[in-house]
Every structure is written in structure tokens, then in C-alpha cells.
Amino acid sequence: LGVSKVKVIDVSYYQKDINWDLFWGESDCYGVILRLGYWTIIDKKFERNISELKRLNIPYGIYLFSYATSIEGARREAEFTNNMIDKYDIKPQLGIYYDLESWKTNSSSSDNISKNGYNYIAKGYIESVSKHVNNNYIVGIYSGRWYAMNRLGNIAKSYVKWVAEYNSTLKYDGQYIMWQYTSKGNVPGIDGNVDISYLY
């Protein structure tokens, strides 16, 4: 993984109105991954956050929380992502991540998705978004260590770039470029806890 790593936070509307000037001036972080939204619904703070990151020239990436249960759903999420990339002129130098983890709604659940189903979902989303950005940016999967190792099929797992495990070491058995090591980080400019990752 190389010898150097930098800290990156990821944020969504849960972090409310962030004081980005304070964050950029006082924190020891290199950049930010913004939640674009979930399914085809934009995060309530995305517009404010992206505009602030651009104003301050803070390196950033984006992620989308997936509720897809089929390749059709994944393509809808990809189309939404691609439309938002165009609408907000997003240049995500830290990457675009497809958040695959456990979820439940009244009518459905990630428990119903097979490993092979995840292969189709991952491939459908990543191929569409990669093509849209002309392969200029990393497009990969974010998942928890256990989930990536036990729930994702081999094709989906091959796209994993960012892994969460809140521990002193990451015991993931695949390749990755980013490790989310805590959900209880503290940084200037944000009230309350924030996720922090090491980007290698």
C-alpha cells in the first residue's frame, strides 16, 4: 500500500452545517468524501457542501448509498449519479464510491440479494459511471469488512476500494485504497462525531 497515508473524512446531512473554513484551516485532513445521496434522492446538504469544497479547493470524492436489488436498480442509481455529476460539475479526484451494505425498508431488504445479484448490481453501476466520467476517476465500492468478505460475490468484491473496520488493524483479505477506521472522529468545524479514513 505504500508508505504514506492521509486522513479523509466522509460527511452527509447528519453533520449539519459544517464550518468548512475552520475545517480546512485547522484540521489535519487531506480531503472529504461527500454523500451524494441514497437511491435517487440527493443528500440534503450536498449542494451546500459541494459548493463550499469548490470555493476552498478542498480535494473531494462522492459516494451513493445503494438500495438497488437488481441490475435495473443499479442502472437507475448510476443514471442519477451521472446526472448529478453533470449538474454540479463534480470533479471527484478522490473517487466515486458505491456504498453496498446492509439495509431494510418496509418492502425490501439487502438480505434478499445473493452474491451473484451483487455481482450484477456492482458491475451495472460501476461500468455505467466509469464510462460517464471517461475513466478519469476511480469508481469503486465502499463496504464494511465483514460485508465485503461474506456478502459480496467475487466480481463485486473485485471493485472494492474503500473498506470500513473500526479497529486498530484492518483484517480485510482483498485490495483497497482507503480504510475507514473510526466513526467517532472529531475534527474542527464539525459538531459531533465524524467518520475518518486513511487514504493510501
Topology:
Blueprint lengths: L5 E6 L8 H7 L4 E8 L2 E2 L3 H11 L3 E6 L5 H17 L8 E4 L15 H18 L6 E6 H6 L3 H5 L1 E5 L13 E8 L8 E6 L1
Parallel strand pairs: 1-2, 2-4, 4-5, 5-6, 6-7, 7-8
Antiparallel strand pairs: 1-9, 2-3, 8-9
DSSP helical segment count:
6
Q: How far apart lie the N and C ends?
A: 6 Å
Helix/strand-derived class? Answer: alpha/beta
On the 0-100 scale, what is the average pLDDT?
97
- Run of helices and strands: EHEEHEHEHEHHEEE
Radius of gyration: 16 Å
Strand content: 25-35%
Strand order of the largest sheet: 1-2-4-5-6-7-8-9
> How many individual β-strands?
9
Shape: globular
Helix content: 25-40%
Low-confidence parts, pLDDT < 50 over ≥5 residues? none
- Characterize the biggest β-sheet: 8 strands, mixed, barrel
Description:
- The structure is a single chain.
- 32% of the residues lie in helices and 26% in strands.
- It is an alpha/beta fold and 200 residues long.
- An eight-stranded mixed barrel has the order 1-2-4-5-6-7-8-9.
- Helix 3 runs parallel beside helix 4 (115-132).
- The longest helix is centred in the middle third of the chain and has 18 residues, at 115-132.
- The mean pLDDT is 97.
List keywords for this structure.
single chain, alpha/beta, 9 strands, 26% strand
Provide a concise account of the structure shown.
Helix 3 runs parallel beside helix 4.
